[in-house]
Amino acid sequence: MRKYFLILFFILCSCQKDYLDVVPDNIATIELAFNTRSSAENFLATCYTYIPEHANVIQNFSLLAGDEVWYYAENDFYMNNETSFRLAKGMQNSSSPYLNYWDGGRGAPHSLFVALRDCNIFIKNLVNVPGLEEEERLRWIDEAKVLKAFYHFWLMQMYGPIPIVKDNIDVGNSSENTYVERKSIDNIVSYITGLLDEVINDNNLPGIINYIYTESGRITMPVAKALKAKILVLSASPIFNGNTDFNELIGSDGNNLVNQNYDPQKWVLASKALKEAIESAESNGHKLYNFNKQIPIVGGINEEITRELSLRAAITEPFNTEIVWAYGPEWTGDLQMWCQPRWTADHSALFGYTKKSHAPTLNMVETFYSNNGVPIYEDKLWGYDNKYDVVQTPILDNSNENYHEFYIEDNYYTSKLHTYREPRFYSSIGFDGGKWFSLETENINLIPHLDAKAGALSGKQGFEIYSITGYFAKKLVHYENIISVEGSTIQGYSFPIIRLSDLYLMYSEALNEVKGTPDSEVYEHIQKVRTRAGLDKDGDLVNTWNKFSNNPSKPLTKEGMRKIIHQERMIELALEGHRYWDLRRWKLADEYFSKPIQGWDIFKSDVESFYEVENIFYRNFLVKDYLWPISQNELLRNPKLIQNPGW
Do the beta carbons of residue 600 and residue 568 sit within 8 Å? Predict the structure, then answer.
């Protein structure tokens, strides 16, 4: 693909406009769009631009709409988010829905049905284009088919049953013939996985992207297979597999649009698709990322920092081996600025780079394991009852070793909650007293730390721009960023949509649902993720639970292993938007999202007062919130549509 594809592609993304918002019956316009290879390539770029920007907390509302992150305000001089943050507060409505990807609007830059229309135009008209080789033509068509499947999938996650857009409706049709109906989940899944099977069988997609600087974000065969697997996992999950809460959704044929009876065969299909997706990814060079770069600091980097960077750079290192599909570098710079705390005077002077407001909640902070690799409330040695006590570092163990040497500042008063946690906690979360490694670190023994109490550099210093919880999203900030009055650098990256660790954990989840009792096959891929994270020193999570948990038999039962896999996903994929979708598909959102959003008392400057737990917001998540409402205007326009339950 020629180099100007990516340049035009990014221009289109940043402008958020349709390259060809054409009328399907305007033959002259359509013919013009496909009369050269260049114009056809531009249309393919247009089909890609409808992908929601995954680093944008509005377009990719899953970053903010759950319980994982909170902001101090929805609207001030520096920030305007009256969409996804209002979703988090339970303020969705049916008269003018927020993030309306059905019609487009209220934070959604496009209607994804328009995206599907343009993909159909592209597939239908990409014939006999002058200068376009047949091999390239077939690849482009398959890319458009995968995009069609992705847009249907995105809409299905939001709305549940949706109309299937196989072909565009002719403009000359009567208005009655344009009235489309919502199809059942089973029919939607059958159609879009069928599209992906066509692509997989055609084998026209590359296994890898060779020209990473000109084709970054383009769809490959591992992407197609991974998307198929994710669709089948969603179909097999409790939200759409035997969910009687949606018994009111009935089609014109009198049949339920969501399966009312649990079908275990769906997990079998999902497990097979995941196996194929993983094999495709691995055979094309994808593997869990491990950091191996040289860093120019005094003393080099040690085992702890190497592991931290392996976990952080799996997200922020462009083109790394773990990322199966990533898209759109335009917004990661902005996202990092909202995540970045301050620890020097330079940072305070350059507050535009250090807005520190994308604040992880205490709710998700407690999700991370202890250093023994089990939940802190299960760990027999950790002391869960005293989790909010204030302690002073260093804390030495029986062998006189300081576990926190590279994680927490010495001679610092912090919460017990921050001590003896697993490496992913320290690589993902910035906290009061916590060290933050970056290229601004001059010496391995002098890693800067955060002071998040009121009036301190990392804490609340004014009426705006602060962390409402006292925590910071370290995981999303590139370690190479440098913020200095002499010159600042923010390293952009494409935000991951699918990582190999995501596929590994879904595979363990699917196999666990298929089997009556967990076995070595269930443990294999979750173990890979845990081993990379520095857990299970003997490489056996069953032994870890037996040794450290007050529920030692937990990984030996399907129900116990299900809980372990759920928590593992919430930890490994923290702050990437997966928790929001996972809790919905597991039908656990009403349990998690109805709890108070919590953080520390960031208005206090003394230690004892700061470490008082504050309830920041109360939300009542209802059954109706599992599905998006269809706008009232759309229901009036199309009398064949039915509204989602509760709206």
Answer: no
DSSP per residue, 218-267: ---HHHHHHHHHHHHHHHHSTTTBS-GGGTT-B-TTS-BSSBSS--THHH
Angle at 473 between CA 467 and CA 478, to 5 degrees: 130
Instruction: Give 623's DSSP letter.
Output: G
Between CA 60 and CA 54 the distance in angstroms is 5
Helices (H) and strands (E) in the chain, counts: 23, 10
Q: Are 466 and 338 in contact (CB under 8 A)?
A: no
Please check whether residue 15 is in contact with residue 107, taking contact to mean a CB–CB distance below 8 angstroms.
no
Q: In this structure, are residues 392 and 386 in contact, taking their beta carbons and an 8 Å threshold?
A: no
Half-sphere exposure of residue 486: CA atoms within 13 angstroms, side-chain side: 2
User: Residue 352, Cα to own-chain centre: how many angstroms?
Assistant: 25
Q: Give the integer Cα–Cα distance in Å for 570 and 51.
A: 24
Each residue's pLDDT tens digit, 362-420: 999 999 999 999 999 999 999 999 999 999 999 987 777 899 999 999 999 999 999 99
Distance (Å, whole) CA 365 – CA 441: 25
Per the CB < 8 A criterion, the answer to whether 297 and 444 are in contact is yes
DSSP state letters, 555-593: GGSHHHHHHHHHHHHHHHTTTTTHHHHHHHHTT-HHHHT
Q: Which of 557, 526, 558, 522 is nearest to 539 (CA)?
A: 526
Residues 6+ apart with CB under 8 A from 363: 67, 68, 592, 595, 597, 598
Report which of 585, 563, 537 is spatially closest to residue 160, judged by C-alpha positions: 585
Count of C-beta atoms within a 10 Å radius of residue 345: 10
Burial class (CB in 10 A: 0-12, 13-18, 19+), 236: buried
> Using CB atoms within 10 A of its CB, is residue 138 exposed (0-12), middle (13-18) or buried (19+)?
middle
- Tens digits of residue pLDDT in 586-621: 999 999 999 999 999 999 999 999 999 999 999 999
Judge whether 357 and 71 are in contact, CB under 8 Å.
yes
Indicate the pLDDT class of residue 327, thresholds 50, 70 and 90.
confident
CB 379 within 8 A of CB 370: yes
* Single pTM value for the model: 0.95
Beta carbons of 232 and 193 less than 8 angstroms apart: yes
Q: Which helix (DSSP H) or strand (DSSP E) does residue 322 occupy? A: none
Q: What are the DSSP E strand ranges found in 46-152?
A: 69-70
Partners of 402 in beta bridges: 396
Inter-residue contact 472 to 341 (CB < 8 Å) = yes
Name residue 46's amino acid. T
Under 8 Å CB-to-CB from 534, ≥6 apart: which residues? 307, 422, 423
Q: Please provide residue 346's backbone torsions phi and psi, each rounded to the nearest 5 degrees.
A: -60, -40
- Three-class HEC string of 159-201: HCCCCCCCCCCCCCCCHHHHCCCCCCHHHHHHHHHHHHHHHHH
Query: Can you point out the beta strands (E) in 315-389?
Result: 323-327, 359-360
What DSSP character marks residue 494? Answer: P
Report the SS3 class of residue 296.
coil
